[in-house]
Write a structure and sequence with these properties.
about 425 residues; mainly alpha; Methane Monooxygenase Hydroxylase, Chain G, domain 1; two-stranded antiparallel sheet; 17 helices; about 65% helix; globular
Length: about 425
């Protein structure tokens, strides 16, 4: 599975190399599909194997498979009792590894469940194991500089701690904000609005405890080592997408009421939620663009980043449908979408179900959003002048010439 995952994320220097690596990845993945031992007896090694399976599915942009594998891994750590203090607490290296395994599974399973809109398998009320600290058992003085670099990602556990904290918050968001009973046709209830504020504050608290190399909100921060930049980018993308999903229902509610001709839901903080969702989508695109083009270019081989960018684009384009949108605001949104398209083109990733480049899907969504808008922006010819790729997807303003068939053309040529 490690070899399959390595082939999946290796740089694609050419179309031939990409095809070659994909075939190797599929071959190696297929030869690791013996699950018999995994479900006969739970083990630490089997849990790690399931995590690798989930990572492979993540890079293949198959969210349902990610949810399935992380769910199996969650059941495995619960079966082993890694969520309990009497099993995994302690100062030894083996105890540290048990806690690392549990909190890694916890964060991956929670985020997978949240992003796919499904329930989590892990209950916080059944967890009393300690949070991860820096590994206290490695004698740093006995390690040379190269060894310190190699072991740094396993010694510095701030990334896993932060992701686990976000995982704890998203469970509240899933049950108290995004559940069917939390959002009605008339907007949020007072309790739901209070929950959103509480979760927002909890997310902001996480930012205050991050080491310098994880401070994704500071674009001027000195570029760190590759593993630091990868962790920084993924933490930032997860943070912003969590805020985006928490506030996006407000945008959906207002847009649906506007198109149906009904008055907008009465909620004082509704516009604030919409602004937060749009701001988070913008930050997602900016962070991905900064990572791919400046800070850590090898991340362009990480297909999971493409999923974050696509989610941000959908939210941004949803906002264009509003009838109150001006041409200036719409152009600002389309500029961000264009920035996202540059990211996807640089990644050169093809959607697993569409068979098309993801950037083409985004351009098609942008064209649809423009045509569905109730404002005057769909009649603004300068939109096509400033964003010519809108015209490349499907011609908008030019009439389509009638199709004529030449009767003297042989059937074989037709």
């Amino acid at each position: 599975m490690v070899l399959a995952l390595g082939a999946k994320v290796s740089p694609r220097s050419s179309e031939h190399a990409a095809d070659y690596l994909d075939k190797w990845a599929e071959y190696l993945w297929a030869n690791s599909n013996n699950y018999g031992a995994l479900f006969q007896e739970s083990s630490l090694k089997g849990t790690h194997f399931l995590l690798l399976k989930a990572m492979y599915a993540l890079h293949s942009m198959r969210p349902n498979d990610v949810y399935l594998y992380t769910g199996h891994a969650a059941r495995s750590v619960l079966t082993l009792g890694l969520n309990r203090s009497q099993v995994a607490n302690g100062s030894s290296l083996s105890m540290h590894r048990l806690r690392t395994t549990f909190w890694t599974v916890y964060s991956h399973e929670r985020m997978s469940a949240f992003f796919t809109g499904r329930p989590s398998s892990i209950s916080d009320s059944h967890i009393d194991v300690a949070h991860l600290e820096y590994s206290p058992v490695i004698d740093h003085a006995s390690l040379n500089e190269d060894s310190l670099d190699i072991t740094a990602p396993t010694r510095n556990c701030a990334f896993i701690r932060a992701m686990a904290e976000i995982g704890r918050i998203v469970e509240t968001v899933s049950t108290d904000v995004l559940s069917l009973g939390s959002v009605s046709a008339n907007g949020y209830s007072v309790k739901t609005a209070e929950t959103i504020t509480t979760c927002d504050n909890a997310l902001d608290v996480i930012l205050g405890h991050l080491p310098e190399y994880l401070q994704f909100y500071d674009s001027n921060r000195t570029i760190g080592k590759d593993w630091q930049e990868i962790q920084r980018t993924h933490l930032g993308l997860t943070y912003h997408l969590t805020k985006l999903m928490m506030h996006r229902p407000a945008l959906v509610l207002v847009t649906l009421h506007t198109h149906s001709g009904e008055p907008s839901p009465n909620m004082p903080s509704l516009q604030k939620s919409i602004d937060t969702a749009i701001s988070s989508a913008k930050c997602t695109v900016d962070l991905a663009h900064q990572a791919i083009f400046t800070r850590i270019q090898v991340i362009q081989n990480d297909a999971s980043v493409a999923s974050f960018v696509m989610s941000a684009c959908v939210t941004l384009l949803y906002n264009v449908i509003e009838p109150s949108v001006t041409s200036t605001y719409a152009k600002d949104i389309f500029s961000l979408v264009e920035r996202a398209i540059h990211c996807l083109d640089k990644m050169d990733h093809v959607g697993p179900t569409t068979g098309k480049a993801l950037s083409v899907d985004v351009m098609k969504c942008a064209k649809d959003a423009l045509m569905l808008s109730n404002s005057d922006i769909r009649f603004d010819h300068t939109m096509i002048d400033e964003f010519p790729w809108l015209k490349c997807v499907i011609p908008i303003f030019q009439p389509v010439a009638p199709l004529t068939l030449q009767t003297d053309t042989p059937d074989s040529q037709l």
